Amino acid sequence: MKGEDRTGQEPEEAERYRLEAGIAAPQEMLLTPPAGIALPPGVQEELQRLQELTFSDMAALAWISDGSGEQGTGPYVWASLLGSRSERVQRMSFRRGSPGLAGTALRLGRYVTAEPQGIRDFARECPVMLAEKLQTALALPVNGKETAAGVLLLGSRSGRLYGPEEIRHAQSGAQRIF
User: Fold this and answer.
1) Predicted confidence pLDDT, tens digits, the chain (178 residues)
2) Which residues are registered as beta bridge partners of 58?
3) CATH code of residue 169
4) Is the distance from CB of 168 to CB of 141 less than 8 angstroms?
5) DSSP H or E segment with residue 50
6) Which of 177, 156, 70, 164 is nearest to 111 (CA)?
7) Where is the GAF domain (predicted)?
8) Do 5 and 49 touch, CB atoms closer than 8 A?
């Protein structure tokens, strides 16, 4: 129904659930894309939608810095952020295969989650997770015509795990971005 969130609750009930569960409400720290980067239309709206659907504290999109949205030589930069608490993230960049969640998602070409009991401890090696104090996160490539044009990152400071439903929402959102 219109006006309901993913739990089928009205917005007021969803807010009460967030407060009782200790989940932060989505925050509105918007980042203007760096010079030379043209993001697809509707990116901010899609990030906000995903942040709400997955009860994430942070939603971010990294885009290849040459602005082509295709295979380029430039690094990926965080071009759009919602719910960020650290200005350092805006200055961070990474390449395909870099240590950390986003670089690993690009290298593997699929989603990657960071959880407290995970095999790899992304929380210690991922600069974004460190800067934002994220306990858990989900990253997945945003595919362009030939290769990954960007990376979608959703994160939780409270340690909320990303299950199959949240992963499906993120995958659908990544497809809608490009």
Assistant:
1) 444 444 444 556 655 655 566 555 444 444 555 545 566 678 889 999 999 999 999 999 988 876 544 555 678 888 888 999 988 888 888 888 788 899 889 889 899 998 877 656 676 778 889 899 999 999 999 886 667 788 999 999 998 999 999 999 999 999 888 7
2) 155
3) 3.30.450.40
4) no
5) helix 43-53
6) 164
7) 44-176
8) no
CA 117/CA 115 separation, integer angstroms: 5
What's the rounded Cα separation, in Å, for the pair 57 and 47?
Answer: 11
φ, ψ at 122 (rounded to 5°): -60, -30
Name the token pair of 129.
């997770």
Residue 172: both structure tokens together = 């659908």
In 10 A of CB 84, how many CB atoms?
23
Query: Which domain does 70 fall in, by range?
Result: 28-177
What is the number of other CB atoms lying within 10 angstroms of the CB of residue 61?
28
Q: How many domains does the chain have?
A: 1
Q: Would you say residue 21 lies in a domain?
A: no
